[in-house]
Amino acid sequence: MTLALFCDPGILEALNATRNKSKVTKAKMRMLSQEPVELISRVDVKEVKVIRLLGSGGFGSVFEAMHNNCKVALKKFHTNTRNKKAAMQSFEAEVHHEVLSLKHPHIVRVLAANLAQCLEDQPCIIMEFVSSRNLQHVLDDADEKIDFKRRVRFAYEVAQALEYVHDNNIAHLDLKPANVLVTPDGSCKLADFGCCQIIQERPNTPSRSYLTGTFAYRAPELLKGETPTFKADVFSLGICLWQFWTREIPYKLQNHQIVIFRVVAYNLRPEIPEGNDVDNRYRELMTSSWSGNPGDRPSMGEVVNLLKSLIPLK
User: Fold this and answer.
1) What does residue 125 show for φ and ψ, rounded to 5 degrees?
2) Which residue positions form the known binding site?
């Protein structure tokens, strides 16, 4: 099985530094830099050495791996489960040309994707390796000190990534701390576009993924099966703002079905802690972002500007 590369020349050079030149298969593809170029190489997945499992979910597993002395992340999608169709939809979303075109310092880059249609091939993608830690790991680590400045830094970098995603007519639709990787120097990178959708200009476009993602972060309109908009990501970020503050799991130990019903019918939200240990503007941004009415939520650009104004980020 081979993987079609979408990376820029520098990454390609690193990936192929020690391998012999193989037969080149040419095809027009859109690069991550948003410039159309030729598909210049294919990588045999057998040449990718798996080092260890990093994490596993309903649709796939992610591994730390090596390819020609270059550390990468390998994501394999499950095709032998009852969720095969959903897993394939997730794979197709992640390798959509609009998603592959994303290039931002706070977004994990896809380097290669298996485009083969053979049934025996296991769909997989190769991504840049960021680290084995995500924001959920950081929040759960009692030894990690998270002051107000660091909390806002998390939110600001994630919001910057989402603003860029929205500018490219994509809604992520599965934002949560576990889907934000943390670099060794503490920077955030948005990952896992398996639930994303291209936002159409036409109203009432059917939702492909309203039942996927993690329920605690899903906007009420998505829980009702309505058409996704960019404001669904704003809602999810509002829940994340609460989690960055409390370091707790939203609706922990509560029955999922009851929570979903109350979020939709009674505007249930995570309990806001008492006290004045957080800036009022942060609190107001959090509550406005998780408003039950999408029209009352700020745009992601407005979120970015407010977070930028909260504290000096340099």
Assistant:
1) -135, 150
2) 75
